């Protein structure tokens, strides 16, 4: 139960931060390049969060 809750929380945080980053970039120019860069960062940070959660258990 604890691991699924932590995974859900980390998934929500990663999705929220990615959505916020994309929303803020939509207001700026060069959206496509910036979106790719931020999406890559979001995926890498999410995988780091999952790895850390697995290490704690």
What does this structure look like?
By secondary structure, the protein is an all-alpha fold. It has one domain (about 1-55). It has helices spanning about 1-25, 30-55. The chain starts with a helix and ends with a helix. The model has no long low-confidence stretch (mean pLDDT about 75).
Task: Give the ordered list of helices and strands.
Answer: HH
H/I helix tally: 2
Contiguous runs where pLDDT drops below 50 for at least 5 residues: none
What is the residue-averaged pLDDT?
75
Please compute the radius of gyration using only Cα atoms. 13 Å
| Structural domain tally | 1
Shape annotation = elongated
Helix content: over 70%
Major sheet description: none
Query: Structural class per helix/strand content?
Result: mainly alpha
Strand content: under 5%
Short description:
The chain is an all-alpha fold and 57 residues long.
Can you tag this structure with a few keywords?
57 residues; mainly alpha; 89% helix
Give me the secondary-structure topology.
Layout: H1 2-26, H2 31-56
